[in-house]
Design brief:
Distance between the termini: 59 Å
Number of strands: 15
Structural class: alpha+beta
Order of helices and strands: EHHEEEEEHEHEEEEEEHEEH
CATH class of the largest domain: Alpha Beta
Radius of gyration: 21 Å
Helix content: 10-25%
CATH superfamily of the largest domain: Pseudouridine synthase
Number of domains: 3
CATH topology of the largest domain: Pseudouridine synthase
Length: 305
């Protein structure tokens, strides 16, 4: 592994990925973006985004720990498209599909599929997140919107910031929740002992999740959840925090059951937003994936036997 340290001599009115592309030999902008996403590039020992603009006296540490690809390539990965026009595309993402390239997942992602499907994608977040405004976890299935141009991206992104986007999930948890409705208000930040995980911490960002019980079983609860905020791993962290982790969750679930099921039982069912061009409100619903519905049916059968 090689390390490089740069000290910025003056304020830079330029994204850090573009800036480093000029400073580093034989390193492309897409490689730099991947390194930022993998937290191999830090400023003043802090994680940053590719859009960060370096300031005078910033200390940029760059860790070259593995060979990253020269570019992100289009790949013919099938997409379950729920809606598409010249501005946006709404996709029902299957579990197991990573949204954008990062360490260990340089190909086979939703971004690779989008690049193959459409020549026009927004570039606000760089090539490794081409078209991506928001994300859902690899093992979470369900609806996600991508943008085909920068103006649509800016307008949809603003809707997320203003909490105008409707996002409803369904989850199966361990344990039986005895109250029909609930509101989880607990700040989320990086786990103090594992930087790859999130946790409820006092120094975290505000995070609010609303839930409603759909059905109870002997040892599980089927929930509908509505996001008021959109922190990383929010639903999974919040449900673990109140003692009802998501079934099959490899990070926040029960250790003894991590390999028993197909993946985590969490599905982004509903997505509602205002079209970035027409202003029309649009809403989509994606049914539970087959493995999720089959397991619900199995739990019902157990209750009746």
């Amino acid at each position: 592994m090689d390390k490089i340290r740069l000290i910025v001599e003056t304020d830079i009115d330029q994204r850090i990925d573009k800036y480093l592309n000029l400073q580093l030999d034989n390193t492309t902008r897409s490689q730099i973006q991947l390194m930022i996403a993998a937290r191999d590039i830090k400023v003043n020992n802090e994680e940053i985004k590719a859009s960060y603009k370096p300031r005078k006296d910033d200390i940029i540490d760059i860790l070259f720990k593995e060979k990253v690809p020269m570019e992100i390539l289009p790949e013919p990965i099938p997409l379950d498209i729920y809606y598409e026009d010249s501005d946006i595309i709404v996709i029902n993402k299957p579990r197991g599909l990573v949204v954008h390239p990062a360490t260990g997942n340089y190909s086979g992602t939703l971004v690779n599929a989008l690049l193959y499907h459409s020549r026009e994608l927004s570039n606000i977040n760089g090539i490794i997140r081409a078209g991506i405004v928001h994300r859902i976890d690899k093992d979470t299935s369900g609806l996600i919107v991508a943008c085909k141009n920068d103006e649509a991206h800016r307008r949809i992104s603003m809707q997320f910031k203003k909490k105008m986007v409707l996002r409803i999930y369904e989850a199966l948890t361990y344990g039986v929740i005895d109250h029909d409705y609930g509101r989880i208000d607990a700040p989320i930040g990086r786990h103090p002992n594992n930087r790859k995980l999130m946790s409820v911490v006092a120094s975290g960002k505000p995070a609010i999740t609303h839930f409603q019980v759909i059905e109870r079983f002997a040892q599980n609860t089927w929930l509908e959840l509505k996001l008021e905020t959109g922190r990383t791993h929010q639903i999974r962290v919040h449900l673990q925090y109140i003692g009802y982790p998501v079934v099959g969750d490899p990070c926040y679930g029960l250790k003894k059951d991590r390999t028993r099921y197909y993946g985590q039982f969490l599905h982004a069912k509903t997505l509602g937003l205002y079209h970035p061009c027409s202003g029309e409100y649009m809403q989509w619903e994606a049914p539970l994936p087959e493995y999720f519905q089959n397991y619900i049916n199995e739990l019902r059968s157990r209750e009746q036997s």
